[in-house]
Task: structure prediction
Amino acid sequence: MTPADAALVANLPAWAFAFVLLICRVGGACMLIPGSGEAEVPQMVRAGFAVALTALLLPVLAPAMPRPPDAVGPLVYMVAAELLTGLFLGWLARLVVAAPSLAGQIIAAVTGQTNVLQPDTVLGAQGAALGRLLGLAATVLVFATGLHALPLAAIAGSYAVIPPGALLPAADTASAAVAAVGALFALAVRLAAPFVLAGVIWHVVLALLSRLVPQLQVFFLATPAQLAGGLALMGLLGAALMAAWQDAAAPALGLLPGAGSTWLP
Result:
């Protein structure tokens, strides 16, 4: 055996441990980030993508990985910490893409389109078709505009701000989670604001009409007009709604931990 072969064999445990740590964070994030984290993507495709991304990052990040611990306890701790870090990063990115789906649910409730529900893999067991439509449109925009690269850059750059094998700080993580959820609901409400305003005006008009003409069956008149008006308004504002989400999503994804980092070991 040559000295080079002996050195390679001696470094194999360190490389294997580095691969395990990398795939825990990368795999956890790839299960949730926009694109590979969609429920329609087969699990084997997700796993293959995570392994391929880990193989690409391994030669660059391996020198920054810690040495394998001698005890089982620290090993389990480091693996669990990396897995939680990856899931947290993927969850933060997923919240940004969930805003159009939530906005679609609000719009559907305002325009009377929640009578017929269908399975929604993003928001829950049942959801409005409009929410699912906007969710799929957001996924298409992520790939069409190159936004999918920001979460991937955040995964690689996260090692500059979150050391490998270290558990996330509880206080900062909780603050980031609360802020992300608040930003999600705020963005969803802003996207649905024109429909909410139109719905309020519509119901005020119906209330006045029922007072002026008590004999009129307002419900039978309002339901078809509400559905038709909601669909017409969606046809007029759908493109602008998704453009507004894209303008808000790019800065939000750019704020992911490590997204703006140019660090290399």
